[in-house]
Amino acid sequence: MTQAKSGDSVSIHYTGTLDDGTLFDTSRQREPLEFTIGSGMVIPGFEKAAVGMSVGQSKTFTIPCAEAYGERSEELIYVVERTELPQGVEPAPGMALEAQGPDGQPFRLNVTAVDEGTVTLDANHPLAGQDLTFEIELMAIG
Description:
Strand content: 35-45%
CATH topology of the largest domain: Chitinase A, domain 3
CATH architecture of the largest domain: Roll
CATH class of the largest domain: Alpha Beta
Shape: elongated
Number of domains: 2
Order of helices and strands: EEEHEEEEEE
Radius of gyration: 19 Å
Number of strands: 9
Helix content: under 10%
C-alpha cells in the first residue's frame, strides 16, 4: 500500500480539539483539507503526522504548542489609545480587527479589554499556548 511522503499532495479529513475536549475546527462538514507534505502549508506537527499514512488510515495525535502555534507571547499584547483605532470602530472584547504589519502583510488582532481611553489588543494566534489534538483520516494521495 502506498504511504504518504514528503512532496506528496494529500487530502485529509480532520477534527481538532483542545485538552479540555473543546472542538476548535473540523473538515467533516466540508471538503477535506488538501496540502503538499513539506510545503509548510499547515502546522509542522500536522505535516509530520501525515507522513507514512495510507489512504483510508486514521490516527489520533497531539501536537505540543511548540509545533503548532507556539507559546503565547506577552510582547504581542498592546494597549492603544481608542483614538488610534479607525474612525467608526466601536471595540468590544472578543472582536477581531485586522492591521497591517511593517512588511505590509495583514494580521489579526483580538480585542481583549476596553475602557474609556484605551483598548487592549492581542496579536497572538487564538490557539497559541495550546496543545492541539487531531483525529485525521487520509482520504487521498496524489
